[in-house]
Design goal:
With 295 residues, the chain is mostly helical. It contains 11 helices and 4 strands, in the order E-E-H-H-H-H-E-E-H-H-H-H-H-H-H. The protein has 2 domains: 183 residues, no CATH class; 69 residues, no CATH class. It starts with a strand and ends in a 10-residue tail after the last helix.
Length: 295
């Protein structure tokens, strides 16, 4: 039997795959967080609840309307993004000129409300969401058995993350977004609707959380607690990558997911804390994060 560092290669690669899958969700969620913080300067603690909301919207679309995974993959981010637009217009838009602590407290309270509503109606036990038939089963790679849906998650996450980064960094719309965060008055003077840009930004970030939620539904059970279980790790990813750095959020999400998976192989007891240990070490050496800009 082939061994890697004294461990059977199947076990090693299996945990590496688990880490890559977790890293895919870390990257997508931290991407949405980074967009909202980088553009709006709002610490969106409701992001985990929006991820949970995406999973439940997909579950309810299937249970009540018979709408399966593939249409839900388009509908869910649109629905969650639209809910984000409403939240931004009614509440968050009033917090931009206040201390960022107000935004954190509001979104934290919003997360508790959303989680409480779903706990009341659905309890805390998870509900299954079936893997789409097209992606059921797995592929034998010779050295391991790769579940098709897990492979799809990794590839789709990469496409979404890189596509979003390119849209913000390389397009005119992205340049307007970045300019509006640096000097909104000047951008407004050129005839750009800055409030609309900010609303769209929060909607896009919320939609990314919803997309991650529907993609996670067949992997993890749909539960009101799924967002709160993940949001602290995602915040750690954003801090390590650099607050507001979109590329940092993507790269760090995958790196920390892999680090977590490998830790389960070599020292399982530390797998739940390795992300925070890495965060502490990075902040000691580089307080702005790996991709953040020093003040």
């Amino acid at each position: 039997m082939t061994m890697v560092f004294g461990i059977p290669i199947q076990a090693f690669l299996g945990q590496l795959l688990v880490g890559l899958i977790n890293g895919s969700f870390y990257a997508m969620l931290s991407l949405g967080l980074a967009i909202i913080f980088g553009m709006l300067r709002i610490i969106n603690f409701a992001h985990g609840a929006q991820y949970m909301l995406g999973a439940f919207v997909g579950y309810l679309l299937l249970a009540t309307a018979g709408i399966g995974y593939w249409p839900a993959l388009i509908l869910v981010p649109l629905i969650v993004g639209l809910i984000g637009v409403v939240i931004e217009r009614l509440a968050i838009s009033r917090l931009y000129n206040l201390d960022p602590l107000y935004g954190l407290l509001f979104t934290f309270g919003l997360a508790l409300v959303l989680e409480g509503v779903f706990r009341y109606y659905y309890g805390v036990s998870g509900r299954p969401y079936a893997t789409p038939p097209l992606l059921s089963g797995g592929t034998n790679l010779g050295f391991m058995f790769l579940p098709n849906y897990r492979g799809w998650v990794v590839v789709a996450s990469l496409v979404v993350c890189l596509g979003t980064w390119l849209a913000i960094e390389k397009t005119k719309f992205g340049s307007y977004l970045r300019a509006a965060t640096e000097n909104p008055s000047l951008v407004q003077a050129f005839g750009v609707n800055v409030p609309l840009l900010l609303t769209l930004t929060y909607g896009i970030g919320s939609g990314l959380a919803g997309l991650a939620g529907i993609m996670a539904a067949p992997v993890y059970q749909v539960s009101p607690l799924m967002g709160s279980d993940l949001i602290i790790i995602v915040f750690a990813v954003v801090v390590v990558g650099g607050m507001g750095s979109i590329l940092g959020a993507i790269v760090t999400g995958y790196i920390l997911g892999l680090a977590e998976g490998l830790t389960k192989v070599f020292y399982p007891e530390a797998s739940s804390t390795v992300v925070f240990v890495i965060m502490a070490l990075v902040l000691l050496v580089r307080p702005a994060g790996l991709f953040g800009k020093d003040a």
